[in-house]
Structure formats: C-alpha cells, structure tokens
Amino acid sequence: MCTFEKICVRLACWLILLVALLGASHPARAWDDYQIIEWQHRDAAQLATLKQLGVTAATVIANRDGAGPPVRQQFAPMLATGLRWYIENIATDFYSAYHRWFPNRPVNWRFVEVQHRYQQNPSDETALWRDPSFSDPAWQRKIRDRLTATVRGESRHHPLYYNLGDETGIADLSAFWDFDFSPASLAGMRAWLRHNYSTLAALNAEWGTNFVRWDDVRPETTRQAMHRTDDNFAAWADFKAWMDVSFARALHMGTDAVHAGDPSALAAIEGVQVPGWGGYDYANLVGAVDVMELDDLPLAHSLNPKLITLTTSFRADPTDIHDIWRDLLAGSRGLVLWDSKNTIVTADATLGDRGRAYAETFSEIRGGIGALLITSEPHVDPVAILYSPASFRTQWMLEQKPKGDAWMTRTAEDEIEDNAARDTMWAYARSIEHLGLQPAYMSAAMLARGDLKTRGIKLLVLPHAIALSSQEAQAIRDFVAGGGEAVADVSPGVFDQHGRRLPQPMLDASVARIVAPRDLATLAPKPLVWVGAPDADVVTHIWRHGDKTIIALQRDYSPTATNETVALTLPKPAEVYDLRKKQDLGRTDRVSLTLDAVYPAVLAVTP
Length: 607
Fold this sequence. Notes:
The chain is an alpha/beta fold. Helices cover 38% and strands 19% of the residues. The strands form four sheets. The chain has an eight-stranded parallel sheet. Strands 9, 17, 18, 19, 20, 21 and 22 form a seven-stranded antiparallel sheet that branches. It is globular and about 75 Å long.
C-alpha cells in the first residue's frame, strides 16, 4: 500500500471513530446535546436566522397573573421555525421577591426599603420578616398549585425546562440580611433545630442560653451576635444555616410540583449567585432543582454530577468566546444569549456583528463536540477540596464585626467581594488545575460518610476551614492516619461547625500541614497526562468515552497573549485525533500543540 493510500485509510478510520463517538448508544438522558437559548423575544424571521447560527431554543415568559401575552402566542414563532422553548419566571414573586422587575421601580426597591426601615429603627423586627416567607403554608400551596398547573398545561409541547425564578434568593440576590424572623420561619427553624440537637440542653450548652421550652428558642440577630465578647456565634450561625435550608426546601417543593405535573419535566433556577449569602450554600442547593444557570460550574458538578448547568453570554469578544469554551469544558450543557440591543440578529432578521463572532464556536460545539463531552464521563483526580459554608459564615462575622452596623448598608455587589474562606478555596482550585489535575469538591456530609476513602483521595485541601464539625475532624484524622495528605492555609477547626470558638483547634500541624496554594506542586499526585506549558497557564480536562479518552487543553485568557506551543505527554503511545481541526495526529505518546489565547485543543485518544 502506498503512502497516499495509507493516509486515506487512516483518515477514513478516524471518520468512523468520530461517528462512533457521537452516535454510540448511551443511557437515556433528558439532556444529551448542547443547547443555545435566545432570551429576548424574536419574530419567526429572526428565529430562522438564529437557528441557522446554531440557536436551538427561545424563551416564553410565564403568564402568572393573566395580564401578559398568552403563552401560546409567544411560542407560535418557535413552532413555525422548529425551535424549542422554556417557560421563564413562573414563581419569581416567591423565589425572587426582593429582586424582580417592577414598572417604574428599581428591581431591588423592596430590599432597599427594608434596609432603610431597619437602619431607622433596629428594634422593628418586622423589617426582618421575609414577605413572602418560604415557610408560609399558604404561599407554599399557592406556588405548588401554580407550578403544577403550568406544567400540565404545557407538557404536550415538552418545554426544555420550567424556570421557577430568575435571580432568586433569600433577599436581594446574594445580599446579606437577617431574614426571616417571621413566626412561620421561626417555627420551621425550631423543628429543624430539634432534629439537629439531641436535646434542648445540648442546644443551650452550644448557644450559651437557658431556654426552658423549645417554643422559647430564638436565634440572635446580627446586631446581637456582633455585641458578643466570647466569639460564640452559634445562635446566629445556626439561624443563617436554617435560612439556607429553608431556601433549598422551597426550591425542592417547586421541583416536586413540576415533576407532579410531568415526571419527565425539568425544574430550573437562573441567575444563581456565587457561593455565599442569599441561600447560596451549594451543598443544599445543587440537589434542589434539575437545571441551574450559574458561574461556579466545578463546585456544582462535584457536589451533584447529575445537575444540568447553563451559563449566559452577554458579548462575543475574545474573552467571552474563551469563556464559552471554558464553561463547556467545565460541564456547561448550554448557553443563554442576552441580546437587549439586537446585536446577534437585527430587526430585519440579518445576522449582526455579534452573531458573526459566535458563528465558528457555535458551529463547532453544535457540530458534535458539545454532545460528545456531555455524553462522556469526566475524569477526576485523587485530590479533594473541602467546601465549608460554616467557615464562610464564621469568617464573614470575623471580618464584619469590627465595622458594627455597617452591614445594614451592604449590597449584593458588596457580598461578591473578598471573603477569605471563599477566596482561598478558589485560589487552591486554580493552583491544582494548573498542575494538570481535575479536583473534586467535598461537603461536610461527604467527608462524614467516608467519601475520602471510597473515592481514593490522596490529597485533601482545607481552604480557610476555620469551622469544622467533630465528624469532619475525625474523618480528616482517619484519612491522614491511612496515608493521606491534608494541607491548609490556617489552623483548621478553630471554631466548631456552629461558629463557637474552641479552646484549641481541632486539628494541629501533625494532621494538616500549612501549605500555600502556590506551593502544592511537590505534594500533588501525578496527573494522568503531562502538559509542558512555558507560561504555566494551561488547564487540562479529561473525559472517558467507552475505551476512548478525550483530552482538552485551554489557556487562561490574556488580551496580550501570543500563540504558545505546549507539549502533551501521554502515558503510552495511542492514536490521536484533533476534534476541532478534524486532523489525524498519528500514533504517538507526545503531541506538540499550538494554543492561542481563546480556543482550546480537543483531542480524541484511542488505543
């Protein structure tokens, strides 16, 4: 066989492989391809143009009060063009009560109002009553009935998902506030506390209180907790933990109502905030709905691999194209397009500049790469990062307490700023990822049930884990005694999980070594593949697809970056195919790749 014939045979084999990768039989899934969703209303001609671009779905606004356009009128253009749709904002009045659209008012005017009321009169506890309360049985019934009726009315069209609410939260997005001291909420909190504390005496011992009856139990407000001199914040922190639980339970209720209307339907929330206040304890949240539109994809997927995640794009400049690919590699299953200025498709249904900028990326992702990654199994290295909302809460109190009542004026934007617990978690994650590793995140419950052992973890990172339970501490000791390595940036377990300072830390240096994020290289396990990048700016992602391995490499974005040549070393020689360039790279154990600042390399490797 001549050289030309050999090349033809090799290329034909790779075409067969690519078809097999994309068309292989997989377990039934509700979402097995990448969806691109236009948010703003478009007519049929505009939707036809968007469909050619790669858009697969559009938005229909729920008609909660009968005053808006009928749902069937809204989805008629989608039916005409063969696009799917999802139902938007079905219960925003419940889940996003302090951040939602009103005519002639700011979206957060209700939150600003309660802030002013409480600043003027801190003894007015009604300013700390959420309206509506997530624990109000009348509202719960109202929302359940509305969701189930909506789903039953639309289920024959199989919407992509049903969105419970956009930019949901306890207050205004991720803003800190002392919601919810309403009677219904406090009654729910007491029942929750009785489940978590063995006796009332145990609660009194932890809180430093002397309640005689469970009905007497009341948490501390933030003002009261800040006036304590013993660093026992348990009566405040337990209430904050309860509110996270209350928010997650309300979402669970909504999801159950959607499933009652159609067991195959998907319930969603959009505008999910970073881990922090507002109900955004991801350990509770990621199991409460089926679909989330959010930014912190690795954390969400680690805590619930079954969660369907979406992201949103507001522009199509190089950094945004980079982020679309980055999020796809991190587990995103779709993209919402926000285009309030008609820059993707114009009023006359022609493709705009932003639409043209998306074209190459949408073509590649919708051309098979998106579906391939979604139906593949992500590889996870034996490295775990502890996710500790208890430490976040305690750290916030330590940072804000010296500022007194300044917390009353803090906004959602303020709460996105520095918090040592959250920032250190992200710093460790970035360091690990740039070592060519894909870490797992673990919650307190996962540690307590033995996931460190069952998942074969070798390195456990404790980012600013200043608040630990005794169960977490024992699991970490057992892990280290069994040969594992634990590292931290500060002494772990200075407080217990309720936010009460302890006489001495739960873990000492013999259990958890103090190692900064930048110094992890000597302790980290060997990656599955090795990447030599001169600028140390490449993140590696690996998936299993049958007997094939998919490898993606992407650089950190920099507007001044030039092309960089990186070397990928495999464990042993294998056939390598570049899925983006559709190019056979031959049988080898070392691949030289040129990466620009935006696009990844995506390779299929087969023995």
